[in-house]
Amino acid sequence: MPDITTPSGVKDILKEYDININRGLGQNFLVDSNILEKMVEAACLDAGDRVVEIGPGLGALTGALVDALPEGQVLAVEKDSRLCQVLQDLFHQEENVEIICGDALEFNWAEELTARGFGKGGYQVVANLPYYITSPIIRLFLELSPTPESLIFMVQKEVGERIAASPGSKAYGTLSIAVQYYAEPEMIYQVPSTVFWPRPEVESVILRLKPGENREERADNEELFFKIVRALFQQRRKTIRNSLSKAAEIDLSRELVGRALERAGINSRIRGEKLTWQEIVELSDIINALLAEVGD
Predict the structure, then answer these.
(1) CA–CA separation, 58 vs 84, rounded Å?
(2) DSSP assignment letter at 132
(3) Nearest-CA neighbor of 100 among 117, 123, 83?
């Protein structure tokens, strides 16, 4: 087999299997062994760990994971059936890897992970994610049970910055809160576009997410919490009071919003982008309680 960690090797194997790159699936292959090592290092893997990989492509990262887990297991899910054939041929002699051909967004993860024992003792997700599925994949695994111990993703730099953004910054928004509500994000390493073939137009970052750190800080009514988050950022320049009292998704009177903000100790004239996700949880819980009082 050609060396799939070099551009020439990738071109050779694509030619051998008569495969044309599907740009609609975000196929930019990682061709730098140093970056592969950094991704594996970021996961802090032990030899017997279990790892899920999404979108393995031609298997460069898969191979690095297999080598790092001689007593563990890699479950790699690839949507492109043509690449699945390459992966099955490449790894058919490896006992610690399973290649599944299917759409990761439609896969029954809870059932399949439990069946493979991935829920016992934990597992991690490590993936060079196709950019077009970054947000839904992150949300899927953060809301999944069993929840992964950590998630190591190669993502578009702009997306990584939004996920890890702090309140008040330009990048801070609904994605920041949606992820930080479930996990602690950390940008590990910046990755230039030159380590991919074909070369994408954007740079990337290695992002680590640690779920479960804030489980005691969950909102009483999560549906309401996320409606409030969306309302606060749909029109960023509005004050908190105006954003919530005029929100399309929630029927909140200006008076009720004012009472909630006063009870939470939040200035009604600031913008929602100034609040941490914890402050929004507290505000959401207060609004939820006030709505219950009105209902009674």
Answers:
(1) 8
(2) G
(3) 83
- Residue 275 near residue 244, CB atoms below 8 Å: no
Q: Please enumerate in sequence order all residues whose Cβ is within 8 A of that of 191, keeping only pairs 6 or more positions apart, or say none.
A: 35, 154, 157, 203, 204, 205, 206
End position of a domain, from candidates 189, 215, 241: 215
pTM for this predicted structure:
0.92
pLDDT, one tens digit for every residue, the chain (296 residues): 568 899 999 999 999 999 998 877 778 899 999 999 999 999 999 999 999 999 999 999 999 999 999 999 999 999 999 999 999 999 999 999 999 999 999 999 999 999 999 988 899 999 998 888 999 999 999 999 899 999 999 999 999 999 999 999 999 999 999 999 999 999 999 999 999 999 998 999 999 999 976 667 899 999 999 999 999 999 888 999 999 999 989 999 999 999 999 999 999 999 999 999 999 999 999 999 999 998 65
Let me know whether 202 and 240 are in one domain. Answer: no
Render 179-244 in DSSP notation, one character per residue: HHTTEEEEEEEEE-GGGEESPPSS-EEEEEEEETTTGGG--SSHHHHHHHHHHHHHTTTSBHHHHH
Both structure tokens of 288: 């939820």
Residue 2 domain-assigned (yes or no): no
- Listed residues 154, 187, 215: the one ending a domain: 215
Domain residue limits at 51: 7-215
